[in-house]
Design brief:
5-stranded antiparallel sheet; alpha+beta; about 375 residues; about 20% strand; 2 domains; Phosphatase 2c, domain 1
Length: about 375
């Protein structure tokens, strides 16, 4: 049959008959196609090995078998009694498509390698982001001060691996407490790095020999601003921030705000107060100045400092006021509903629960809440 098929294929064709065992050992480049002749089911021993070997060499494969076996093998098989002209036509079609098949096979191999490289790169990137998140968390307070007259609680939620928000609470001395939140414009690692720089560059005390001076909030923000401007290159990076110093003896809080959302005071008499502050963002203007605001707190009051992520996470709920317009920011409505909550940890917990229920996944931002309760 080999001679007749060779004649049917025409000049230049060479058809050689070998056993299935020999076909499974043929070297790459020694043949262009594999034709298997199965005259009886007993001849199929070694068929799988031969076909697998041909597949590894990307060779066209044609099996000639009885009609029932050929039907079961599918497109790569023909009845053994098919006309040689049909077999030759089938082989010509396979060989004509072979260059395109080889090209696609090379592309597939290249794509597989590229996918493997991308997976490796993504794995390394994920590890780096996990490490960056861990490092950033180490910049946050491990524990919050628990003072006889003051209790504190915090909520910090990055929208991705790392956050563009950061907060800090520091015991400045026996009688003073520093409260700080910064929010870098943007997201991801650049914003996270900027907030960590700001947090570490915030000056709180100035040592003078055996004495010291607590740096007022406005002056502290001014120094941070100068430090940011000195470090900046060609690209401007800026942030909002709020810094307050509380005298735990008098319960007077001095605040300075750099473009940050105003703090909210939940008064013990069931009223709510939005503390208006003035001052531009950090890292833009050299001559920016900040005006301090003083707040007198009383037993039962709760102070809430937050980043703008809280406002985005708690938009106004139209269902709460059907048919009404301009009912006010949603985060203030949420805080107003917590006026009766006297424990600051419960205030933060309930805010977190409300964020989980109402926040829009498409409008996610970093969220930070720092709450303080006067006992």
């Amino acid at each position: 049959m080999a001679g007749r098929l060779q004649a049917e294929l025409g000049p230049g064709a060479r058809v050689t008959g070998v056993s299935l065992a020999d076909a499974a050992r043929m070297e790459t480049g020694s043949l262009d196609a594999l034709i298997v002749l199965l005259q009886s089911p007993e001849d199929s021993h070694g068929l799988t090995e031969a076909l697998d070997h041909a597949d590894r060499m990307a060779l066209p494969q044609l099996v000639l078998a009885d009609a029932r076996t050929a039907a079961g093998l599918g497109a790569g098989a023909m009845p053994i009694d098919a006309p040689l002209s049909s077999v030759a036509a089938m082989l010509r079609g396979m060989l004509a498509r072979q260059p395109e098949i080889l090209r696609l096979r090379r592309q597939a191999v290249g794509s597989s390698r590229l996918v493997g490289d991308l997976r490796s790169d993504l794995g390394r990137l994920q590890e780096e982001l996990q490490l960056a998140a861990q490092v950033q968390r180490e910049f946050l307070p491990r524990t919050l001060p628990d003072l006889p007259r003051v209790a504190l609680a915090a909520l910090w939620r990055p929208c991705h691996w790392v956050s563009g928000d950061i907060y800090d609470v520091r015991r400045l001395d026996e009688h003073h407490l520093g409260l700080f939140i910064a929010d870098a414009v943007g997201h991801g690692i650049p914003a996270a790095l900027l907030t960590m720089v700001i947090s570490r560059s915030l000056p709180t005390k100035e040592i003078r020999g055996h004495d010291y001076r607590i740096i007022p909030p406005a002056e502290a923000l001014s120094r941070v601003n100068a430090d940011l401007l000195q470090r900046q290159g060609r690209e401007t990076r800026f942030a909002t921030a709020i810094y307050g110093v509380l005298d735990v003896r008098t319960l007077r809080l001095r605040l300075a705000c750099a473009g940050h959302p105003p703090p909210v005071v939940l008064r013990g008499d069931a009223s709510i107060e939005l503390v208006r502050t003035h001052g531009g963002v950090l890292g833009v203007f050299e001559d920016e100045r900040w005006i301090e605001t003083e707040i007198d707190l009383h037993p039962g009051d709760r102070l809430v400092l937050h980043s703008d992520g809280l406002e985005a996470a708690l938009p106004e709920d139209p269902a709460a006021h059907p048919g009404a317009e301009g009912t006010g920011p949603g985060h203030l409505a949420a805080l107003r509903a917590l006026l009766g909550e006297t424990d600051v940890h419960r205030v933060v917990q309930r805010l977190g629960d409300l964020i989980d229920r109402r926040s829009d996944p498409a409008n996610v931002d970093d969220i930070t809440v720092l709450a303080m309760q006067v006992r």
